[in-house]
């Protein structure tokens, strides 16, 4: 008799995606461009050193993207064509037995310019169809209000999130979708990975660095406005959908001290607080004590309006959602050590860990550690809404994709989630990132694949977009059927796989 599962009875197993990486149809049925539609795929990309090639957004790039006669390759405008194939994709999710599917609503599909008073009905109708299709299969939608895709036109009409006026526009958008979908959606997330505003201010807050000589001031003022907007969305959600649960979300960029030298340990704590700052404010409802010195050292003076602090305190998140992919090391002498890459930010290489082809260090034990840290810190329910292994999958002659490396990556992380639950963590669910291949957020690649389902599309948009099941499809189906008890050993381990490096 195999041992019983450690996962709770109604654990929300499933998958996660984002409008800007799957939908495509960037200008269909009234949709306006979003900031995500400006990113191009760079054919000169060096996967392993993609972070070194990363550059801040420029006015020129935005203007070029707005030029209707432009010929650049904008993969996020194509996605994987979910907009037209959502029924087929939801059928595949149902075949795997999904209990939940996390995705986002495209703000610029509902308010094409971001500041209209009336919503775009065709945009609302699309999500009605998607949510109805999910619910018909018994799949609980978990919806993010904004996932790196604020309306691009806001940058012209109102500017970026340093403009306090965006709070009201965001709340109007949130109230519109809460009212429209109050009988369909009960799990919501406000901003995707709000802590990444620190590292990618354009994707998160529309901040073009050329506009802000004091960039740190801009980032943290934008963060304050998003904190207020997030809290007001929590308030509206509870008023409009009484039994709703609305969470905040961070990318858990796990860090270890590079050595036991006290200076490295202190540096690690300092860098960890850069991320915890965002979940602290949204979960505790106030600026943490360390924020005063942290902001002073950055010469940042926040403009906090009367009433803001009460709004934050009275409307904290119901749960803490997180993405977890990898870990990095932190050192007081960072420049002296070999670098590693990571999800949107890098760090120092950990000699004990394998890396994927983009240099992300694979650390399943870190999943347990991260969940324990967050649960100790907030004592609120947690939800792993992103975890997965990006890889260049190979299609065999018979059309199969033997992604044993992905099975092993997921198996090890699920095992560690089970340990965390045993440790006392209240875990709501697990939605593996990218259940159907899509466009990568950081590199805009179709070839950086996460899915249980393969999509025939390359980085230049060539292919049939046909879907096919990978080896991991049936593996994950068994995981869900057994509520996490059946974690079959893959034929090949990560260590044996060609897709990882030491
Ligand atoms: C997270 C984003 C997701 C997703 C994931 C994987 O930070 O919230 O949108 O893309 O990273 O990253 P990537 O797609 O760059 O491999």
| Low-confidence runs of at least 5 consecutive residues | none
Termini separation (Å)?
37 Å
Kindly state the mean pLDDT as a whole number?
A: 96
Strand content: 5-15%
Please give the domain count.
1
Architecture, CATH level 2? Alpha-Beta Barrel
Structural class: alpha/beta
Rg (C-alpha, Å): 21 Å
Helix content: 25-40%
Bound molecules: 6-O-phosphono-beta-D-galactopyranose
The major β-sheet equals: 8 strands, parallel, barrel
Annotated CATH homologous superfamily: Glycosidases
Form type: globular
Please state how the strands of the largest beta sheet are arranged side by side.
1-2-3-4-5-7-13-14
Number of strands: 16
Explained architecture:
The longest helix is centred in the middle third of the chain and has 26 residues, at 215-240. The protein is of the alpha/beta class. It has helices spanning 19-22, 50-53, 59-66, 82-96, 107-110, 121-136, 153-157, 165-180, 201-205, 215-240, 262-284, 290-297, 308-314, 364-378, 404-422, 471-481, and strands spanning 12-16, 100-104, 140-146, 187-191, 245-251, 254-257, 319-323, 327-330, 339-340, 347-348, 354-355, 361-362, 382-386, 427-433, 453-455, 467-469. Helix 8 (165-180) runs parallel beside helix 10 (215-240), helix 10 packs across helix 13 (308-314) and helix 14 packs parallel to helix 15. Strands 1-2-3-4-5-7-13-14 form an 8-stranded parallel β-barrel, surrounded by 5 helices. It has a two-stranded parallel sheet with strand order 6-8. Strands 9-10 form a two-stranded antiparallel ribbon. The protein is built from 16 helices and 16 strands. The radius of gyration is 21 Å and the shape is globular. It has a single domain (12-89, 98-380), classed as TIM Barrel, CATH 3.20.20.80. Bound molecules: 6-O-phosphono-beta-D-galactopyranose. The site of 6-O-phosphono-beta-D-galactopyranose has 15 residues, from loops.
């Amino acid at each position: 008799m195999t041992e019983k599962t450690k996962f709770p009875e109604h654990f929300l197993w499933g998958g996660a995606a984002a409008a800007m990486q799957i939908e495509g149809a960037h200008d269909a049925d009234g949709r306006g461009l979003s900031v995500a539609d400006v990113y191009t795929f760079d054919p000169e990309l060096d996967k392993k050193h993609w972070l070194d090639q990363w550059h801040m957004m420029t006015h020129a790039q935005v203007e070029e993207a707005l030029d209707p006669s432009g010929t650049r390759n904008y993969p996020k405008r194509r996605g994987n064509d979910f907009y037209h194939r959502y029924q087929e994709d939801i059928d595949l999710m149902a075949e795997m037995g999904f209990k939940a599917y996390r995705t986002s609503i495209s703000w610029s599909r509902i308010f094409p310019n971001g500041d209209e008073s009336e919503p775009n009905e065709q945009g609302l109708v699309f999500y009605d169809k998607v949510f109805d299709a999910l619910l018909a299969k018994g799949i609980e939608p978990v919806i993010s209000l904004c996932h790196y895709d604020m309306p691009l036109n806001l940058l012209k009409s109102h500017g970026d999130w340093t403009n306090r006026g965006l709070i009201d526009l965001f709340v109007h958008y949130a109230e519109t979708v809460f009212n429209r979908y109050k009988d369909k959606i009960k799990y919501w997330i406000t901003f995707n990975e709000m802590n990444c505003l620190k590292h990618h201010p354009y994707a998160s807050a529309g901040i073009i660095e050329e506009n802000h000589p004091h960039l740190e001031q801009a980032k943290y003022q934008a963060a304050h406005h998003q904190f207020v907007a997030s809290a007001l969305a929590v308030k509206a959600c509870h008023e409009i959908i009484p039994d709703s649960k609305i969470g905040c979300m961070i990318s858990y960029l796990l860090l270890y001290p590079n050595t036991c030298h006290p200076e490295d340990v202190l540096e690690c704590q300092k860098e960890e607080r850069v991320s915890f700052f965002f979940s602290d404010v949204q979960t505790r409802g106030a600026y943490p004590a360390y924020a005063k010195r942290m902001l002073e050292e950055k010469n940042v003076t926040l403009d906090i309006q009367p009433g803001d602090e009460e709004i934050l305190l009275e409307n904290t998140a119901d749960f803490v959602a997180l993405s977890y992919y990898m870990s990095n090391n932190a050192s007081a002498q960072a420049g002296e050590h070999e670098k590693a890459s990571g999800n949107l930010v890098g760090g120092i290489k950990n000699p004990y860990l394998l890396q994927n082809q983009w240099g992300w260090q694979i650390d399943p034990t870190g999943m347990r550690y991260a969940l324990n840290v967050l649960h100790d810190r907030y004592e609120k329910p947690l939800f792993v809404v992103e975890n997965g292994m990006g890889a260049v999958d190979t299609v065999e002659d018979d059309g199969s994709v033997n992604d044993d490396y992905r099975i092993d990556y997921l198996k090890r992380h699920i095992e560690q989630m089970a340990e965390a639950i045993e440790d006392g963590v209240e875990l709501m669910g697990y939605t593996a990132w990218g259940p159907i291949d899509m466009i990568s957020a950081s590199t805009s690649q179709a070839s950086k694949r996460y899915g249980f389902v393969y999509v025939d599309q390359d980085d230049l948009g060539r292919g049939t977009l046909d879907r096919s099941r990978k080896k991991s499809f049936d593996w994950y189906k068994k995981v869900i059927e057994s509520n996490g008890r059946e974690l079959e050993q893959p034929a090949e381990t990560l260590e044996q796989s060609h897709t990882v490096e030491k």
